[in-house]
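All the exercises in this workshop are built on plain-text protein records. Sequence and backbone structure share a record, each on its own labelled line. The question running through the whole workshop is how a given chain folds. The record below serves as our worked example for the rest of this section.
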Amino acid sequence: MPPTGSKRPFSGSGGAGHRSGPKPRSHEPQQQPVPTGPYISMFTEFRNELDEHQDRRERIIKASRDITAASKKIIFSLQRLRPKTLPITTPLPYHIGNEIAQYESKIQDLLASVLPDLQGLDGARWQRQISPGLQEYIEAIGFRHYLLKRKVIEWKEADWYVSGLNGDEILGRKESGQEKEDVEMADAASSSNTPADTVLIQTTVAVVGGDDEGRKKDEESKKEFTGIQLSREDYVLGLFDMTGEMMRFAITSVATTPLSQFLGVGADSAGEQGKSTPQCLLQDLRTLRSSFEGLDMGFSPFGRDAEKKLRVMQESVQKVEYAFYGMVVRGSERPEGWVADVDAVGGGDAGPE
């Protein structure tokens, strides 16, 4: 006789009419109990401080990266110059000056944006976060300063640039009435036969300077803050990086300078004024190398970074020397008007032949 009744499922749950497996859970959200206690408010304040601390850190790191990117673009614009001798005494081409002014305006706005986050002890606390951007900016303005004056930018002037308080003065921004006059002068210059090279960079910045009321509010808020402090370590490391740009500029100058002008701008020239751009760069790079080699680096984190950059700088000077050796020693074997190839004159890592 067959068994009667329902069979217990293998899972062991339920009976007839039930599916095997656990019952589906309810999807209704369960309300968490609100924590209570005498220390809740204290730890809530700690949480808010940590969140603010992390947000400040992220803002500074992002600003530092943006400053680095804009500074590199300034350097790329300067590398397109092709002067016959240094320092550059003629006005920069308008398109290059315009690019530099726009990038520098962006950098100054970024420095001003993180100015409240770098006040007092926070300036030292976040030094490592803002340091890469400051070093790259020092490299850019130091390279420009060298091309225009053939001098190394001093620490005081570099500190003035990175303070975040002098953006309007750096960019040549003026009052609204003067800005209108400058715009009219720029329009008159563009409609006349005046070359574009003679138009001032400050005029371009005045046109794109932004809202006057917003800028006045920024100036009032800046008065409450102290400027960003440029450490001597960041200044020196920025100069180390600048020598790399000098090397690239020298290699390009060697490759684009005809043999007839390589050892001097003209036959009647004499002294410093008669030196070509490659000659000026090689002499100044050697001077910087001897000066940096005499520094006492110490055993601090700065010393480790400086030692690495010193080796890179020495290699950069060597590359320029190899390029000169190839031009001077074997220059007589080359036809008149021949222009050197960058790789053939030591632009890479190879040594002299």
